[in-house]
Structures are given as C-alpha cells and as structure tokens.
Design a protein that fits this description.
The protein is mainly α and about 45 residues long. About 40% of the residues lie in helices and about 0% in strands. It comes from marine sediment metagenome.
C-alpha cells in the first residue's frame, strides 16, 4: 500500500469521525502500525 493512499484513508476516517462527534477541530491523532493492522511502521517515515 502506498503512503499517499494510507494518508488519504486516515484523513477520511478522521473527518468522518469528527463529523459524527460534531467536533470543531482535531488537534492530535495517534496512528498505529504493526502486524495486526497490516501496515509497516516504515510506511510512515
């Protein structure tokens, strides 16, 4: 999976959740990577 695609999915998920929670802003996220997620940590660096 390409890094840009990962970022697009993360942003989409954040946006959807923020709307659902009626949040005015998002100040911090904590992405997780590893065997269970299928995402290698190196994909973010």
């Amino acid at each position: 999976m390409h890094e840009s695609h990962l970022i697009e999915l993360i942003i989409k998920g954040i946006s959807e959740n923020a709307k659902k929670e009626e949040a005015k802003s998002v100040s911090k996220i904590r992405p997780k990577a590893g065997a269970i997620t299928g995402v290698k940590k190196d994909s973010f660096y």
